[in-house]
Design brief:
The chain is an alpha/beta fold. The chain folds into 3 domains: about 20-145, Response regulator (Rossmann fold); about 165-255, Orthogonal Bundle (Helix Hairpins), CATH 1.10.287; about 255-430, Heat Shock Protein 90 (2-Layer Sandwich), CATH 3.30.565.10. The chain has 10 helices and 14 strands. The strands form 4 sheets. It has a 5-stranded parallel beta sheet, sandwiched between helices. A 5-stranded mixed beta sheet has the order 9-11-12-14-13, with helices on one face. The longest helix is centred in the middle third of the chain and has 67 residues, at about 150-215. It is elongated and about 105 Å long.
């Protein structure tokens, strides 16, 4: 939407751009303060000029193209440079450069303004007596000029000032990025320390509760057994969450990638073995669509960790007695696609852009608890570290199974394939925020 113009109280009541049947000349006043707007409007409307104000210098370009005024009156301030930079952009525009451009500047800036392309200059403070006369002369074709030598000198100085400002901005960005990296490191340290503190007492607690549940410490009444199993389920779920947080927090501390030629089918089967017991406990059937043989260069341990987390998330999302599908697709030589489907609930469209945020709740799990955002965040970091990505479809547009439906979600870990360049053994710093 284009910015709307501003009109003062003293405007003519005649139709826009006309007065007493005669077309009024239009002046677009850009970047003025409230006091400047009132003063300029009063001086120009007294001489039958139509004035429109635009505070936003960015919106001024769109307004000028739409309105096609007879003259552009631009407030230029060297200290802020918005007006001076806008002047160069106006004169670089084939549509706007034919329109007379008059800059209102502080004393001593006249030569600089003309060197940047202004057709005329008015210096502050504006004198009402010659102001309208000067505007009329510019509308009739008068132009102020400076010598080529003067213009060259000012352009060189102005270019250097832009370089200095750019250098200063880059330095500020570097400092801001350094602060953000430090905050990110502190956050990871905090998560890791808290997770380890939680893990220390959890281990004996889970062991003792499991012993109680097994009956090795003596018989339990049915009521006690139900309470112990509820406690066991909660402790195991908390332990899994702590494990996810530890994996996520320590990911960047493990050093550079260690890519090597890897049997992807064997890797997939190893990941399946790691989650088989959890799938059996929830009566989840896992289907597989794997090629007979496939070798790709990747960091085996990190991709294995990512794949285990993907399968674990799918098992937790599927209802008891549901289904999970693991598919490895290498039909494109330059791309390896490992996809995991689940038969759980679909992810809302509004939530999909945030599913990889470490602590975002994407969807409730059929088995209780919440979707492990920290696990998906780690999967994405593994993908980005390899120069790949993670894709999500919910519900999946299609699936290769002929026996079951998968209405929940499809997460695809997409990595460079056998025909692509090997991932560089560089650090993982760039993967921290990649692809979010």
């Amino acid at each position: 939407m284009l910015p709307s113009g501003r009109r003062g109280e003293g405007m003519s009541r005649n139709p826009p751009w006309t007065t007493l049947g005669r077309k009024m000349q239009r002046i677009l006043h850009i970047g003025a303060t409230a006091g400047e707007r009132v003063l300029v409007r009063r001086m120009l409307e007294d001489h039958a000029y139509q004035v429109e104000d635009v505070e936003d210098v960015e919106g001024a370009l769109a307004i000028a193209r739409l309105r096609r005024p007879d003259l552009l009156l631009l407030e230029g301030r060297a200290a802020e440079s918005d007006g001076l930079e806008l002047a160069t952009r106006i004169k670089a525009s084939p549509e706007l450069s034919p329109i007379p451009l008059i800059l209102v500047v502080d004393p001593g800036e006249r030569e600089l303004a003309l060197s940047l392309g202004a057709d005329g200059v008015l210096e502050r403070p504006l004198d009402p007596r010659p102001f309208a006369r000067r505007i009329r002369s510019f509308l009739k074709g008068k132009r102020d000029r400076v010598s080529p030598a003067t213009q060259s000198r000012h352009l060189q100085a102005y270019s250097q000032s832009l370089v200095d400002r750019l250098r200063h901005s880059v330095q500020e960005l570097e400092l801001a990025n350094a602060r953000l990296r430090r905050v990110d490191d502190l956050k990871n340290e905090l998560i890791e320390n808290v997770s380890r503190e939680l893990a220390t007492p959890l281990t004996p607690l889970i062991g003792l509760v499991d012993l109680l549940d097994s009956g090795r410490l003596g018989p339990l009444t049915p009521r006690q057994r139900r309470a112990v199993r509820t406690l066991s389920h909660a402790l195991h779920r908390l332990g899994e969450t702590v494990d996810h947080l530890l994996d996520l927090a320590s990911f960047e501390d493990e050093g550079p990638l260690a890519p090597r030629l890897t049997d992807v089918v064997a890797l997939a089967r190893e990941a399946l073995a790691a989650v088989r017991e959890k799938a059996r406990s929830r009566r989840i059937r896992i289907e597989t669509h794997l090629p007979r043989q496939l070798e790709v260069t990747l960091d085996r341990e990190r991709v294995l960790l990512a794949l285990v987390h993907l399968l674990d998330s799918a098992i937790r999302a599927a209802p008891r007695g549901g289904h999970v599908l693991l598919e490895v697709d290498a039909s494109r030589a330059e791309e390896l696609r490992i996809s995991v489907y689940d038969s759980g609930a679909a992810i809302d469209a509004e939530a999909r852009p945030y599913v990889f945020e470490p602590f975002f709740v994407a969807r409730p799990l059929a088995g209780g608890g919440l979707s492990p955002g920290s696990a998906l965040a780690l999967v994405q970091r593994v993908a980005c570290a390899h120069g790949g990505r993670v894709e999500v479809e919910s519900p999946p547009r299609s699936h290769p199974s002929v026996d079951h439906d998968y209405p929940g979600a499809k997460f695809s870990l997409v990595l460079p394939g056998a025909g692509a360049d090997s991932p560089p053994p560089g650090t993982l710093a760039s993967s921290r925020r990649g692809g979010r």
